[in-house]
Amino acid sequence: MDASKSEVLHDVPPYIRVYKDGTVERLVGYEVVPATLDPGTGVSSKDIVIMAETGVSARLYRPKSTPTGEKLPLVVYFHGGAFCIASSQEPKYHASLNRLVAEANVVLVSVDYRLVPEHPLPAAYEDAWQAIQWVTSHASRGGDEAWLKEGVDFGRVFLAGDSAGATLAHHTATRAGKADQELGLKLRGMIMIFPYFWGKEPIGLEVTDPFRKVMVDNWWAFVCPSDRGSDDPLINPFVDGAPALEGLACNRVIVCVAEKDILRDRGRLYHEKLVKSGWQGEAEMVEIQGEDHVFHIFEPDCEKARDMVKRLATFIKQE
């Protein structure tokens, strides 16, 4: 065997391994399931390409049935995976989103953005922005996706995501605030599920758990080897150069954190600073006791996961 093919260049447990010859081995999050009718929820799904120039796709979901002519809220969802694993076709995400669509009675676009290391950051952030522009084309410029054109109330559009996907939702919402007239779409709200924000100086659990602090430091150093490290504005929304929180292009936000999650205190801080900023909106905070990061993806049938999905559905349904 060629030594270069067996030599590991980057080992980022438990996610990914990159070899010297450029081979990328994803250790988790690489499984896929086809889009289909889900018998448990009655939710239908299909895959489409939304950006031909980059090949970025999305999995679209719609609930079992709605009265003729009724328009449903739209959720634009960004999956997690530390920017380097998972996809909109990953089985656990597919199952989770089937449940959310059924519970909230929404149309949902799950964006399959490009991943590191094949596509270095900020590619994922650009894909998220292009995705919301693609959605907007159906509201103002006659996009051609029937599930959106015929079934969506574009006055009720939500951004959502978990972990790295919540980070993408935040950056998309702040960018939309700056380009509101250009975008031509007013976002109703944003759903932040265990957001992946970070920083150099430890806070909260990070102080008492230096092992996990270093682990997350290393994850970010792999996906974004910038001079600013964990204080890069792409991951730390509170540093110089980060978009101002008061510019969020929505008037309602819900932030979910988990008691045992090493990212917990960053989510708390985000909620706190958002409330204290000049942003003119309402922010809710939900903390799930006794659980860790994205537990609802790994244990979707547990009582706390079901309760959280119901809480998110209530947030979407509120007028």
From TrEMBL:
Gene Ontology molecular function: any one: hydrolase activity
Active site feature: S163
Pfam families cross-referenced by the UniProt entry: Abhydrolase_3
Domain Alpha/beta hydrolase fold-3: 75-296
Superkingdom field: Eukaryota
Gene3D superfamilies per the UniProt record, alphabetical: alpha/beta hydrolase (3.40.50.1820)
SUPFAM superfamilies reported for this sequence: alpha/beta-Hydrolases
Family designation: Belongs to the 'GDXG' lipolytic enzyme family.
PANTHER family, A to Z: ARYLACETAMIDE DEACETYLASE, CARBOXYLESTERASE 2-RELATED
Protein name: Alpha/beta hydrolase fold-3 domain-containing protein
